[in-house]
Design a protein that fits this description.
Blueprint: H1 2-25, E1 31-38, E2 41-48, H2 54-70, H3 78-84, E3 91-92, H4 95-110, H5 120-126, H6 138-146, E4 153-156, E5 161-164, H7 177-191, E6 197-201, E7 204-208, E8 217-222, E9 231-237, E10 241-246, E11 251-254, E12 257-260, E13 275-282, H8 285-298, H9 300-307, E14 313-319, E15 323-326, E16 334-336, E17 343-344
Parallel strand pairs: 15-17
Antiparallel strand pairs: 1-2, 2-6, 3-5, 4-5, 6-7, 7-10, 8-9, 9-16, 10-13, 11-12, 13-14, 14-15
Helix pairs in contact: 2-7, 7-8, 8-9
Length: 346
Amino acid sequence: MKAVRLLIILLYIFLLVGCSDQQEEAGEKAYINDSEFLLDTIVTIKIYGHNDASIIQEAFDRIRRLENILSVHIEGSDLWRLKENAGKRRISVSKDTITLLEHSLKVSEMSGGLFDVTSGPLINLWDIDPPEGHYPTNKEREEAISLINYKDIEIHKDNNRVYLKRLGMEANLGAIAKGYIADKVKEFLIKEGIESAIINLGGNVLLIGGKPDGSDFSIGVQDPDSLRGEYLGLLNVSDKSVVSSGTYERYFIYKEKAYHHILNPFTGFPQENELKGVCVVSDSSTDGDAFSTTMFLMGKDEGMKMIENMEGMEIIFITRDNELYFSSGLKDIFELVPGSGYVIAN
């Protein structure tokens, strides 16, 4: 199944690039764009008012470098070495890893541990790789849960060393790294003089400015009940991050029930509440990525209380009853798609 999925993705990328080439032949473009398969997804960068495509390749190279540092699944990465040395010794890591681990710990504190960067053993246990996954026994769940505790990470900033205190522990940055990488790409492009662009890391969308004519971009809010790319509404925004998360992203079927990838580190099960999706709009994509997961785990009521007290952060909660709940700063910039089947509840 992995080979089939990769073939489909590569075909999709080929079609995207093919369309881009045809447009270039017609004359100077108002934008350049390209796509690559990185971070286990399709990454697309579209830049307006710029005609040197090498800048996108430089951005891809930066994404690749950060992935090789931050992915626990790549042998030799910081996170892989941290896992291999858990309970044994401190290891030296990059400043990027230190930054992300520190940020993760702050979110862990704010969420009371619902967001926990040491959830690696639980993520590995469920092994969700659609359409496959593993439904664990109670014993397996209990063993995985016993290895999760963000307070068992030691960070030594003076010499960039990190230590996981117990054997079998594993830090996994999957719920925050894409956002951080998107922020670093935006930082790079702005330094290169880019004033208008869309960075799309497989659903994590980060904008540089607005459209060249000064208007907002229209960014789709994923319909959790439909295929990726089918939207329930549009957000009209500029210079923001838009990150969606929900039960639709990665799941498998076991005994006729779907089990998704947003795992509760206290119960060891995929979180079950009134939600099927969230969409976070923020200044920072790092925050957007982390809090899209955190807000889903917290649920609508507690999550809304937290978001309303945070600067530069807004949210849409999408319930199983097809109702949309907005934080105070979003409703006026949202357009519901007619006939979507959703209603605005607040």
